[in-house]
């Protein structure tokens, strides 16, 4: 538990000096532990090493944020120094950008968190990079989104906002890897030789997005278009044998709408994913084009008790061609994947105690993700969270593949 020892020493060392810092310097010290709940005897032989690790996550983290602001422009820099339980130290640059506010244009240049869409852990128009490992291992939800190096310009005209994104450097999703602490469904486990091809920096590989937002009849409406890549890799077996991981090209066209309704908030989102490298659906290594839709509703039932529900549907295009090209022994996905999600949140003790549970599951593929959590603010500076990440379902499904990573997690944070 060396990570926890580091956290304790840092807290004691910083508690007397925190108040002397300028107000535009912030940060925190955080300890993170996620204990694996799956018994080792239930692990597949190909991932025995990962399963025998008692902790899915064991780390300490120091974050510093510098955010000076002036009349029309400002800076933000946010970086984490992470000490892993195995003894490694890494630096994670979360955000680093310059803001410039002109009469009709907001400009942000640098590493930044990009977010589109209205879903709660269900994403359609939000195509930007994510850290899947952070969600699986119980890190605070802020760590699920990764930064993108981008130019972000928003023009405000006649009660509308037109946002243009230019992303010159590709940033992949963070996903479980062979030899790591996390288990996942790896149909190519018998192929140890692997290499990854990420899109290099080039004009042809620049990702771009355009979104128009406006209030129409009480509805907050947005239409968007994105041209870039899938951020989760595809896999292809090559001579050797060796496994090539790569990121196919992708276009996404979508729309969102949100408005007050029936004492709560009604949300809708739809999108078309056009897989440019598999236009006919006959490339088994590349995801087919698909239509996706989301319907959500959120309401406060009584003061400090909020419930939300979502229904999501993903319809694969050219499903017949997909079935004809799936290699023998590989699992076959259905043409339609349905997903239902419910979140319940209760605040108590003057909102210092937060009880929550989130459930996401597929009625037709029978895989589920359940995460109850208790979060308590001990003081204005000290907070803690205790929760469970539970994954259920067949190992070939999107959520069930992480059954071996089900864990009990604990996070404590001290604000500097």
Concise summary:
With 416 residues, this protein is mainly β. It has helices at 2-14, 48-51, 132-136, 319-325; strands at residues 25-36, 55-66, 73-84, 89-101, 105-113, 147-157, 160-167, 194-197, 207-216, 219-229, 234-238, 242-246, 249-261, 264-275, 290-302, 305-316, 336-348, 353-361, 368-377, 382-392, 407-415. 7% of the residues lie in helices and 51% in strands.
Would you write up a description of this structure?
Residues 1-22 have low confidence and may be disordered. The chain has four helices and 21 strands. It is globular, with a radius of gyration of 22 Å. It has 416 residues and is mainly beta. It is 7% helix and 51% strand. The protein has helices at 2-14, 48-51, 132-136, 319-325; strands at 25-36, 55-66, 73-84, 89-101, 105-113, 147-157, 160-167, 194-197, 207-216, 219-229, 234-238, 242-246, 249-261, 264-275, 290-302, 305-316, 336-348, 353-361, 368-377, 382-392, 407-415. The strands form two sheets. The chain has an 18-stranded antiparallel β-barrel.
Reconstruct the topology from this structure:
Layout: H1 2-14, E1 25-36, H2 48-51, E2 55-66, E3 73-84, E4 89-101, E5 105-113, H3 132-136, E6 147-157, E7 160-167, E8 194-197, E9 207-216, E10 219-229, E11 234-238, E12 242-246, E13 249-261, E14 264-275, E15 290-302, E16 305-316, H4 319-325, E17 336-348, E18 353-361, E19 368-377, E20 382-392, E21 407-415
Parallel strand pairs: 8-12
Antiparallel strand pairs: 1-2, 1-21, 2-3, 3-4, 4-5, 5-6, 6-7, 7-9, 9-10, 10-13, 11-12, 13-14, 14-15, 15-16, 16-17, 17-18, 18-19, 19-20, 20-21
């Amino acid at each position: 538990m060396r990570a926890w020892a580091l956290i304790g020493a840092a807290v004691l060392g910083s508690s007397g000096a925190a108040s002397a810092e300028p107000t535009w310097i912030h940060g925190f010290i955080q300890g993170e532990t996620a204990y694996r709940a799956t018994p080792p005897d239930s692990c597949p032989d190909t991932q025995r090493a990962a399963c025998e690790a008692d902790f899915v996550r064991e780390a300490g983290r120091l974050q510093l944020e510098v955010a000076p602001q002036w009349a029309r422009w400002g800076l933000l820099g946010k970086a984490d120094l992470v000490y892993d339980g195995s003894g490694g130290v890494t630096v994670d640059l979360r955000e680093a950008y310059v803001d410039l506010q002109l009469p009709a244009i907001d400009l942000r240049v640098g590493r930044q968190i990009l977010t589109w869409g209205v879903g709660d852990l269900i994403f359609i128009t939000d195509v930007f990079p994510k850290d899947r490992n952070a969600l699986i291992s119980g890190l605070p939800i802020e760590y699920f989104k990764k930064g993108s190096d981008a130019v972000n310009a928003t023009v405000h005209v006649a009660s509308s906002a037109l946002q243009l994104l230019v992303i010159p450097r590709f940033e992949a999703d963070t996903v479980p890897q062979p030899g790591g602490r996390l288990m996942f469904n790896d149909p190519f486990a018998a192929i140890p030789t692997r290499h990854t091809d990420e899109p290099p920096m080039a004009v042809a590989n620049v990702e771009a997005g355009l979104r128009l937002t406006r209030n129409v009849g009480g509805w907050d409406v947005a239409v968007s278009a994105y041209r870039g890549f899938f951020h989760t890799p595809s896999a292809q077996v090559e001579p050797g044998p060796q496994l090539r991981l790569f990121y196919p090209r992708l276009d996404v066209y979508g729309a969102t709408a949100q408005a007050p309704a029936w004492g709560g908030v009604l949300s809708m989102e739809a999108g078309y994913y056009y897989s440019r490298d598999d236009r006919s659906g006959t490339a088994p290594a590349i995801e087919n084009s698909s239509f996706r839709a989301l319907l959500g509703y959120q309401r406060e039932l009584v003061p400090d008790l909020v419930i939300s529900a979502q229904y999501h549907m993903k319809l694969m295009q050219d499903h017949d061609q997909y079935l004809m090209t799936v290699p023998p022994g590989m699992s076959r996905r259905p043409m339609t994947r349905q997903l239902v999600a419910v979140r319940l949140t209760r605040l108590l003790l003057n909102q210092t105690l937060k009880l929550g549970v989130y459930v996401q599951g597929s009625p037709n593929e029978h895989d589920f993700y359940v995460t109850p959590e208790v979060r308590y603010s001990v003081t204005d500076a000290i907070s803690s969270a205790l929760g469970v990440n539970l994954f259920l379902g067949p190992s070939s499904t999107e959520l069930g593949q992480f059954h071996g990573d089900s864990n009990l997690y604990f996070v404590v944070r001290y604000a500097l």
